[in-house]
Design a protein that fits this description.
The protein is α+β, with helices and mostly antiparallel strands. The protein has six helices and twelve strands. The chain has helices at about 10-25, 35-45, 50-60, 65-80, 85-90, 135-145, and strands at about 5, 30, 95-100, 110-115, 120-125, 135, 160, 170-175, 175-185, 190, 200, 205-210. A hairpin with a 2-residue loop joins strand 9 and strand 10. The model has no long low-confidence stretch (mean pLDDT about 90).
Amino acid sequence: MPLMARELRITEETRGVLACVWQLKAKPSLVIDTAAVAAVKDALKCTVPDEVLALFAAEGASLAVMPALTLEVTTFFDATHGKGHWRTELQFDHVVFARLPSDDAEPLYASFRRGDSPTLALWHARSPQPGGIAITIEDYAKRRWGELPEVDGRAFKPVVDLPPPPPARQVIHPTFGQGRVLDQRDDKLRIDFGAAGIKTIAERFVKPRP
């Protein structure tokens, strides 16, 4: 695990299923780039659930497909159900994250609902049901990969790497010399001056180190 990383929160059942997918895909990297997560969050105006991020890690897939697939589905629904009106009728406030194989010519998509408690759903493009068809990650994996054998999921621990903290702010005080800012509250700085100790000083009494 990278030194600065957040392990994704998933259930042990989901971990076991995705560990199998991960092995089928020849164990792609389990480290998800935080910049990619931020870019998708900005594009979609919502947070991607950890279980979906874990799925993408298992499959070695790019998060960038989500905005494109969501646009593909909404554009199709606009054309076939009347622009904008179908959203309320179909209860569609979802992000599409995958296109699944189907038994007929009708495209089948997997999505998650935006919000604090995201749920997963399937959408038949030409005959969608209001709210979609509720599924789990396990259902998704079986539809995409078929029946999966049980594997030891303990090694499957996907993480989002975190950006390194910014360098400490350096300041100079006329009496205590050079110091490192530890934290700030309002206009008061808590500064480590090394041998002179840690002091709390009003910001106006120090200058930035050149």
